[in-house]
Task: structure prediction
Amino acid sequence: MPDEYAESERPALETLQRLGWEVVDQQQSTWIDPRDTGSSAVLEPRLRDAVDRLNPWINENNLNKAVRDITQVAGTSTMDENEQIHEKLVRHTSVEQDRGHGKQHQTVQYIDYENPKNNDFFALNQFRVAGPVEVVKPDIVLFVNGIPLCVVECKSPLIPEPRSEALDQLTRYQNERDGESEGAEELFRYNQFSVAAWMEGAVMGTYGTPKDQYKPWRDAYPLEDDELAELFDLDGYLPDQYRMLYALFEPERLLDQLRHFTVFENKQSGAVKMVARYQQYRAVRKALERIDKRGRREAQGGVVWHTQGSGKSLTMLFLALKLRRLKDDPTLLLVTDRRALNDQIHATFERCGFPNPKKAESIEDLRDRLGYDAGETITTLIHKFQTTDDEDDFPVLSRNENIYVMADEAHRTQDKELANNMRTALPNAFYVGFTGTPIEKDERNTRRTFGNYIDTYTIDQSLEDGATVEILYQGRLADIHLEGETLDRLFDRIFSNKTDEEKAEIQSRYARTQDLAEAQPRIDRVALDIIEHYEEDVPSPFKGMVVTTSKEAAIRYKETLDSLNGPESRVVVSEGHNDPEHIKKWTPSDSEKSQYKESFVDPNGEVELLIVCDMLLTGFDAPVAQVMYLDKPLREHSLLQAIARVNRPFEEKTHGLIIDYYGVSDELKEALAMFSSKDVERAMVPVEDKQPDLEAAHSKAISFFDDLDEVEQCVQSLEPDDRRIEFKNAFKRFSKLMDVVLPDPMANPYLEDLERLSTIYGTAKERYRDETMNLEGAGAKVRKLIQDHITSRGIEVLNDEPVSIMDEVEYDAKVEDLESDEARASEMQNAIKHEINVRFDEDPVQYGSLRERLEDLIEEYREDRLSERETIEELRALMDEIRSRDREARNKGLRGETDLSFYHAVEDVLDDHDAEEEEVVELTGTLVETVEGFVTKVEWKERTHLQNKMRKEVTGDLYRSSVDLSGDQRRELTNRVIELARAHYQ
Result:
């Protein structure tokens, strides 16, 4: 049997101990809970000791105030409180105290960041925190100075879905599952990291991180894996769990990430907490190392290439936060070449609480700010580094070395006259170029200007980590692609219904390829195709962007889509002073642009399509966007940046899709020729390239069965756990590829088998009560298709709970409806097994006995010692016994209001010991009476002191009883009785 404690939890505790944490393992030793109430998550005595130690001048009143300030934060939500607490941990709090010079405000430190060893690092397993309804018990909680900063949920790597199970528990603890109050949010007011670990894998997030956004940590820079293996005395091989625990919880790194790599961004849906991922943390550390080596044969800068969608703007922000802390009043200059990007970067810094970023309002304003050497953070467009009419050369503004320039989209902005002016103005500054696209293979521009790569995070790495999704492309309406066809042929095709005279007149007006692209007959055809594709093939809630050749084309598309009753769309184009009136009519104001973007990004917002020509093709982050309708010639960096609008992950988003109407994909190699092929080979993948993968996935999925039409036979063949896991993984792989390919005709040969496999999959999930057999990751299109199909077949929807055997009428009717005795026997044995597992903790002795009887019965059936009818009768008798026991437990009677189920559970535990029946009966009654004296009290589960008192009284009852028990036996029995009470009265 898998052993979570031995295979993940205990090794994690040992790892933390090696990293310098004080560790208490409650399976190995007794821990005295110091809390007054189980609903508190802070270890207040440790917090008080730490605050007192780090602030030796503090008096008792102010010590009490400082503790209250961090433990009694009141906010509008748990996220709001988390943000307030983070602010106090990083910037500390203030108290008023007389230190001999009159009363003054003094800063109180909760954490000593400069000297990590001055802090109290304590790790505890099985720490219980009471929520409004249930008590949660994470596997490991990590406290810094008594404050619970981190939660780790451990799973055995041998169970079917360790990642999914661990993340499901973490989201349950946070009350993030369908809004149910089943967790303890109190624990997460302080949370910095939440980790799911299963030895062979580990993923991390923070409070509020959606399940699908937990990510691995693949590089513990600056240590290599072999160095980590040596650190932990491992024989060469390093399981992922060790890397994750070191990367996040080595004390100095943990405090660094709390202080410099954590930000809150206020979005339309509310505040979002963001912590660094490994490529961001690594890039910042490498950049700082490069800065420290400046002048020692290193260039005055370097390039960070992190592929589009991997959090480049946040990396800039984290580097800025570190520079602000490490350098003495540095000037930070963030440069881009587009107003929208400048606005975005400024807004990101501002929203994330970066101290007072300034936007250069003019050429003169920028010069003034840089000339002051005032240590400001300034955002600007590169265009403000231009000479004035009376200047031949750009002036030197500052020779200060304490200036750090971060240039976004460095490939585009840094190899022309304006960039030279900037270097003239700031000759001793340190320059870091950030780019979301690889550097050109001939290296003639960006690398020469900035120096070599500081860090790279490639398309392949991003896809592997799930930081982005794969982008597929598909050419549509090939006969009107503009590349690769002569203008004459295109003209004749588009205007085939015109007379020669009309053609001559039109041709005099349409002289360019772009004119043909914007011809109304062509736009009519493309717009209709967009509508049909979007409505039939893009599942809710996903959205799309239409990319056009010009403002004129954008407006024609808008008017045409509206005239055809297309999806709700908006035009987002820039304002031009010389635009004609019909374009000005559709040009949105700045506030309207913001509204349109917010509505588009919101999955429930009314805007479904955004129509653009140049705007929003860089820097616009909309995870809900799945499809881009591309009707514009794009090449090189522009192409890579534009298509990346659809590569952001979103729930049930298996891929982004480019529908190419212009023929860009026909000449893809040429369009990306300036890059090394290995850097861009997975930038866009043709849909037809998925054919071999789909065929292989289909073959694997059907290989488990001899005849897909024999559903019951197929379902029963999946009874062994390992076989069911293999089939589940194969089915999900097949389903995901079908979601990617549909509605391409290449999927048609496999649709019937998808439906038949869905029936088997849904029936097996229901039969074996296998919660891991969900449709996570299958994709929105296929998920709906599968659920509609299995519902029509009368199978429980995959996300629903199967009918319990305790629901006598409904369950018995369900069994009778099955088509054979073989199916009935299979269904009943699995339903009974599930019920026993669910109830086992309430009475381990009794339900352990029932489990053994069930296993013996199944063995007899498999060996043909019992017929199907005999087996069904035996199973029915077992089921009746469980039901009868449940009914008896619900009927109060014996010993007044005593719950018989709990009474019998205690009695069963005592029966294991050598004692007379009368002694057992007397001691059982005493123990039950003691326990029920506590569990009837209000909030007994939340009040730790009540539980500790109950433990003492139970131990006293055992000590005073006539049953002969050793000290170890009394301790063991006390623990078992307390656990039974917690399980039973939950």
Remarks:
- The two ends are 26 Å apart (CA to CA).
